[in-house]
Amino acid sequence: MTAPLVLPAPAHRTRQAAGRTRTQVLLYAFVCLAVFVIPLLIDSDFLLNKIARYIVLGMLAMSLALSWGYAGILNLGQAMSFGLGSYAMAMALKLKTVPVHTGPEGLPDFMVWNNVPSLPWFWEPFHSLGFAIAAGIIVPVCAAAALGWFMFRGRVTGVYVAIITLAAMVVVNLVIIDQQRFTGGFNGITDLAQLKLFDITFDAYGRSTYYLVACCLTASLFLALAVTKTKAGLIIQAIRDHENRVRYFGYDVAAYKIFAFSLSAAIAGLAGMLYTVVMEFASPTFLGVPLSLSVVVWCAVGGRQSLVGAFLGAVLVAGMQGALSESKTFLETWTLVMGGLFVIVVLFLPKGLAGIAELLSVRIARLRQRRNATVAEPKPTEVGP
């Protein structure tokens, strides 16, 4: 098959794209810088830990925006990748817990309670922290790639993708709950050791953990942004807009969708590992339906076609949810308030909060064009008597 014909873009469109990219990079840098500055403004370790949790949830929302907003793949099971990453990190930290909290030869306490005689073979590699970190990314990627291969090679689209991903997540959740002897069941994996990397101990309530989360957020945001600006990223966005047309041009649509789906899972897996470090436990709720549906709401509020918009939407909504649920005034009605906010945003801001910034930038660009046109317009010459 001959290579698809690619025509060069007009010069003015190239300049517009470069300007748009420059603006996005500056915006992303500003948001990441603001995240790094936060610890300098607060003294409460508890509040710092809470903000770190919201940032990790923002990473999860950003990962969904990459597959939903840019590739058009509505993954209702995004929490599956998040939960798999969380359990990978929890298994490693559980094996590093001080002996007083474990059974004979370091056997996890919940295995002792369930009469497991020895450590299962699939737990053994998690004695290595490096293996656990790799597994926290590779396992979600492999699961997403396998699921994507069956869906996208079979040209499954639309609501059916959402149903299949949701069903896959529910199956994994039920397996983890059912295998209580090896996973802790409903209780999850608790009583974990602190993460230690490069002789640095990451206390969940310390600044070291917060900065670890901030660094991972920055790397994930700019990696995802860079991917969207590559040729593959542009093809993925074209698939979102008109899949059949891209297929007629000779591109392997399924391969590009699997790539976007897997990259989204990798970022979600990284977020899951960080969430275990911040929360100090892993739970089946991390790959449950409520969390997965909440991620969709966060993306819709922030703007699913904006990575930083989805991140800010998650931080804003999760922060409001936490504040309202802890308030005496909204203790029993905070879910109604959050539902009303979601309806308002969907009705009046179909592109989310990011749509406001887009609208403002368009208006500013039009004002500049009018001003430049006025300046460039030649003044009429005066004719003497």
Jot down its keywords.
single chain, mainly alpha, ABC transporter involved in vitamin B12 uptake, BtuC, two-stranded antiparallel sheet, about 375 residues
Characterize the structure shown.
- The protein is mainly alpha-helical.
- The chain has a single domain, classed as ABC transporter involved in vitamin B12 uptake, BtuC.
- Helix content is 68%, strand content 2%.
- The protein has a two-stranded antiparallel ribbon with strand order 1-2.
- A hairpin with a 2-residue loop joins strand 1 and strand 2.
Number of domains: 1
- If you consult CATH, what is the topology? ABC transporter involved in vitamin B12 uptake, BtuC
How many H/I helical runs? 15
Q: What gross morphology would you assign?
A: globular
**Order of strands in the sheet with the most strands?**
1-2
Q: Please summarize the sheet with the most strands.
A: 2 strands, antiparallel
Contiguous low-pLDDT stretches (5 residues minimum) are none
Topology of this structure?
Blueprint: H1 11-37, H2 45-68, H3 78-95, H4 109-113, H5 129-153, H6 159-178, H7 180-183, E1 195-197, E2 200-202, H8 207-229, H9 231-241, H10 243-248, H11 253-279, H12 289-302, H13 307-325, H14 334-348, H15 353-376
Antiparallel strand pairs: 1-2
Helix pairs in contact: 1-8, 2-8, 2-11, 2-12, 2-13, 3-5, 3-11, 5-11, 8-9, 8-11, 9-11, 12-13
Short description:
The protein has 385 residues and is mainly α.
